[in-house]
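Morning. Coffee machine broken again, so started the prediction first thing and wrote up yesterday's gels while waiting. Chain of 354 residues, entered below exactly as on the submission form.
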Amino acid sequence: MFGRGTGHEQVVFCQDQASGLKAVIAVYSTALGPALGGTRFYPYATEDEAVEDVLNLSKGMAYKNALAGLDHGGGKAVIIGDPKRDKNEGLLRAYGRFVQSLGGRYVTACDVGTYVEDMDVVSRESSFVTGRSPDNGGAGDSSVLTAYGVFQGMLASAEHLWGTGTLRGRRVGVAGVGKVGRHLVGHLLDDGAEVVATDVDPAAVARIRAAYPAVAVADDTDALIGEPLDVYAPCALGGALDDRTVGILSAKIVCGAANNQLAHPGVDKTLAERGVLYAPDYVVNSGGVIQVADELHGFDFERARRKASGIRATTARVFALADEEGVPPAVAADRLAERRMADVGRLRGIYLGS
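Came back before lunch.
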């Protein structure tokens, strides 16, 4: 693992045979403060696949937290298993013990396969847990501000490309209408956009149809991206943008909630060459981490929402730097995040005394 040159500070393997827990916690950086990032519960085919995912996700969290203006580094955890079958109280509490054992270097939250009620259980064994229910002093569902932030990123993208900060009259394709995508659809419809959606889960599609009868539904993601779209919003798992997808994509803006959307290095350049404006995922989907970070200071939703509104200005700043330096927006976002991690992180070298 260390030969991979990932740059991570710490990778911890966690196992409790009695409960069935198999987890990996990755801390990419604590330059800006304790690493903050969610726990993904997913049926990975192999342990190597789980490790690869947690390494990528934790690095993305470091960059996300940096550009969100948070005093947090980046971390992530994955639990290997089927959350519908394998999740139980003992497993979650055992996981909480491992989080606690890191002494605050890593602060966890919800992610794919984990929910507010799960964080309530984890928090019974650890004080380094966010995304808890309001009854337990938490912020509740972080997908609310995640979706809001993605919508802010879309407005910045529309303004940059079309000169108007609205999606009114535009056709937006949303791939994945679960926790985040569902809220995003609501924002888009309120703004006057036309929405076409898809999801691998028939129940998620049924919920969208019931809540928003005006939404059109595509059979699958391939059918969705093949439709005439103005904006494509990947809101499911990562790797949504590969060479094949980019080659058939009709949308002129890509802005979605999924993490690690670029399947491999170079996809961002291909998007730019095809005239597609890509809003870097970790810039626009940071509303959730802004929400859970606020929980650590006594949660105030309106305060967190105001901070998440800044995603629009941050996205615009990324586009401006990309134009100024002649690089894709993904490269510009990385440069801004790395500058903040370096500039603020170096202050840790100033001795404060005891």
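The first helix runs from residue 47 to 67. Going to sketch it on the whiteboard this afternoon.
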